[in-house]
Amino acid sequence: MLKSDLEARCARVLELEKRLLQSEQESNDGDARLKQLLDEFEKRKAFISSELDVREKAEALDAFEARLQHLSKEQADSERSLAAQRENLVAEREALSRECAATEIEKSQVSKSRAMLDLEFAKLQGRQC
Questions:
Q1: 78 vs 71: CA distance, rounded Å
Q2: CA distances for 76 relative to 68, 79, 85, angstroms
Q3: Which of 58, 39, 33 has the alpha carbon at shortest distance from 47?
Q4: How many alpha carbons lie under 13 Å from residue 127 in its C-beta half-sphere?
Q5: Residue pLDDT, tens place only, 14-35
Q6: What DSSP line would sit under the chain, residue for residue?
Q7: How far is it, in rounded angstroms, from Cα 38 to Cα 44?
Q8: Neighbours of 48 (CB within 10 A)
Q9: How far is Cα 75 from Cα 86, in angstroms, rounded to an integer?
Q10: To 5 degrees, how large is the angle CA 14–CA 15–CA 17?
Q11: pLDDT per residue over 34-77, tens digit each?
Q12: Where on the tree of life does the source sit, at the highest rank (predicted)?
């Protein structure tokens, strides 16, 4: 009886060891699955974070492009205004040049008229003498 009792106990111990190994294996499998799920979670979290970064960067880029377009429009407006001012100044300079030329012609004519008057005056004085 001792032998059968011992065999039964050994069989029970073997059965318990087998269950323990199965339990450890299941625990290890569960730990591995948990680690796999955690890794997957971290990957998804990193992906979402990078997606948010990309969106934020895209929004910042859109804002920058809008500002750049606004500044480009302002620059184009400013260039048009400067070109118009330049044209006005050129036209004003040309008008002043024409006016100056007309004044020079007038001055020349006045000088000729004066010279003729001086000559005539001298003739008249010469006749009186």
A1: 10
A2: 12, 5, 14
A3: 39
A4: 5
A5: 888 888 888 888 888 888 888 9
A6: -HHHHHHHHHHHHHHHHHHHHHHHHHHHHHHHHHHHHHHHHHHHHHHHHHHHHHHHHHHHHHHHHHHHHHHHHHHHHHHHHHHHHHHHHHHHHHHHHHHHHHHHHHHHHHHHHHHHHHHHHHHHHHHH-
A7: 10
A8: 10
A9: 16
A10: 60
A11: 899 889 999 998 888 888 888 899 999 999 999 999 999 999 99
A12: Eukaryota
Q: What angle do CA 98, 100, 105 make, to 5 degrees?
A: 95
- List Cβ neighbours of 54 (8 Å cut-off, separation of 6 or more): none
pTM of the full predicted structure?
A: 0.47
Q: Which two tokens stand for residue 37?
A: 């799920």
